[in-house]
Amino acid sequence: MKRRQSEKNKKLADDARLMRAWRNWHAEQLTEALVGLHEVNAAICKLRERLDQEPIDDALVELGEPLRAFQLIRNIMNQFPVPAGEPTSGNGLNRTIAEESKCHE
Q: In whole numbers, what is the pLDDT of the chain averaged over residues?
């Protein structure tokens, strides 16, 4: 009986270790994705400024304007689900443009 309990405890400990490793890896991937999103945003702003346009010009979705490049990229990034049981960062990620425009009403 003790051997069976010991094997169970080893499996539980190993599963917990694997879950921690996966969460750490996932956090690193998320950080890299957010850095990439920031770099894309900065590049779009620089390009728009070079073309003598406003650096930030989000579409007015409620008026039927087509989404701009950054909004399209953000929507693609938001297609990835938030891990179950983990709160969102509250920074607007993982919300669609439509959901976000409702927040500004």
A: 80
What's the CA dihedral at 71, 73, 74, 76 to 10 degrees?
120
What total of structural domains would you count in the chain? 1
Spatial separation of the C-alpha atoms in residues 18 and 20, rounded to whole Å: 5
Q: CB–CB of 61/67 below 8 Å?
A: yes
Write down the number of H helices and E strands in the chain.
3, 0
Ranges in the chain, pLDDT < 70: 1, 82-105
User: What backbone phi and psi angles, to 5 degrees, belong to 37?
Assistant: -60, -40
What is the DSSP secondary-structure string of 49-91? Answer: HHTTS-S-----GGGTPPPPHHHHHHHHHTTSPPPTT----SS
